[in-house]
Design brief:
- With about 325 residues, the protein is α/β, with parallel strands linked by helices.
- It is built from nine helices and 15 strands.
- The chain folds into two domains: about 5-115, NAD(P)-binding Rossmann-like Domain (Rossmann fold); about 125-260 and about 295-310, 2-Layer Sandwich (Dihydrodipicolinate Reductase, domain 2).
- It has helices at about 15-25, 50-60, 75-85, 100-110, 125-135, 150-155, 170-180, 270-285, 290-300, and strands spanning about 5-10, 30-35, 45-50, 65, 85-90, 115, 140-145, 185-195, 205-210, 215-225, 230-240, 240-245, 250-255, 255-260, 305-310.
- It has a nine-stranded mixed β-sheet.
- Helix 3 packs parallel to helix 4 and helix 7 (about 170-180) crosses helix 9.
- About 45% of the residues are buried.
């Protein structure tokens, strides 16, 4: 652990960074936010730069970097940080390809640095108690319903529709990360249908069938076209009755009864993430879970492409 707080810079200052990363960094005494890098945005009270090269050259006191850019440039940002001896917290989706992520793991190991590749939904309050219950049960089947309005959650974010931007899998990979956290055995895609707007390069919706190694089926529906109540649910059918994670993993229902949350589970996902990052930096250890990215890659690899109506962004 560096003497005193871990001096961290943030790369990519969008809404997600402002809403989640910056408050969590500033609330944690193990960290000190000292720099930010963005083409257009600025963070008050820290040194601001418009390029990674400039920040790494002029902010030599940095211990770690948080990378919150679009996934297409995650690899270059993280690689530059690691080669300059900085620990890295990497937002999801971690990279545009599995081979890029694998190289980052190698760089962190070679440099004795911490690479913490996060899946924030794994820290949702309902996930840990769901894991304990599933350990005592036999899984029969699962249904994932992940439907949201892209105009609300990704307004003006053209990168999501470009190659490497994941499209609806940018949100859907959160559900995949919960599945890989809760299901220890291997999970494989069986079939995948990707619905691509005729004017975009990534899918706006997807219907996927996954299967566990023991044969449990997982039906998955992702949709960015959904209006009204936003839905992020995972229903588990087990030998002892149903479990349901809703609101992106925030709420757990056992049978017909919502499970009371333990007080420590009420902490925000990112507070938990930065607490763990501090521990990893102190031990100079990395933590990377490539399984959700691997599942997403397999879904694209197996996917039957279906052209649908063009997507035109406008107010919902």
């Amino acid at each position: 652990m560096p003497k005193g707080p871990i001096r961290v810079g943030i790369v990519g200052v969008g809404k997600f960074a402002r809403d989640h990363h910056i408050p969590s960094i500033r609330a944690n005494p193990d960290f000190q936010l000292v720099a930010a890098c963005s083409l257009r945005a600025r963070v008050e009270g820290v040194r601001n730069f418009t390029s990674m090269d400039e920040m790494l050259a002029q902010a030599g006191d940095l211990d770690a970097l948080t990378v919150c850019t679009p996934p297409q440039i995650h690899y270059e940002m993280a690689k530059s940080a690691l080669t300059h001896g900085k620990h890295v917290l990497l937002e999801k989706p971690p990279c545009a390809s599995l081979s890029q992520l694998d190289h980052l793991i190698h760089l962190a190991g070679a440099g004795g640095l911490s690479l913490y590749q996060i899946w924030h939904s794994q820290h949702a309050p309902g996930v840990a108690p769901a894991l304990e219950l599933l350990k005592q049960r036999t899984l029969r089947r699962v249904r994932v319903t992940w439907k949201e309005d892209v105009r609300i959650w990704h307004p003006g974010q053209t990168w999501i529709w470009q190659p490497g931007g994941f499209g609806v899998l940018d949100a859907g990979i959160n559900a995949l990360s919960i599945l890989t956290r809760l299901i220890e055995e291997a999970i494989f895609p069986v079939s995948s249908v990707l619905y691509l707007p005729s004017n975009r390069e990534t899918p706006i919706a997807a219907n996927v069938v996954l299967q566990t190694a023991s044969g449990s089926e997982i039906q998955v529906e992702f949709d960015f076209r959904h209006t009204g109540t936003q839905t992020w649910d995972i229903d588990f059918d087990t030998d002892q009755g149903p479990l349901k994670l809703s609101a992106g993993g925030s709420h757990l229902t056992v049978g017909d009864s919502p499970l009371p949350h333990h007080p420590e589970n009420l902490r925000s996902e990112y507070v938990s993430i930065y607490e763990h990052f501090a521990q990893l930096v102190g031990r100079r250890r990395s933590e990377v879970d490539a399984r959700p990215l691997q599942l997403a890659a397999d879904i694209f690899l197996l996917g039957k492409r279906v052209s649908v109506a063009p997507f035109v962004e406008s107010s919902p």
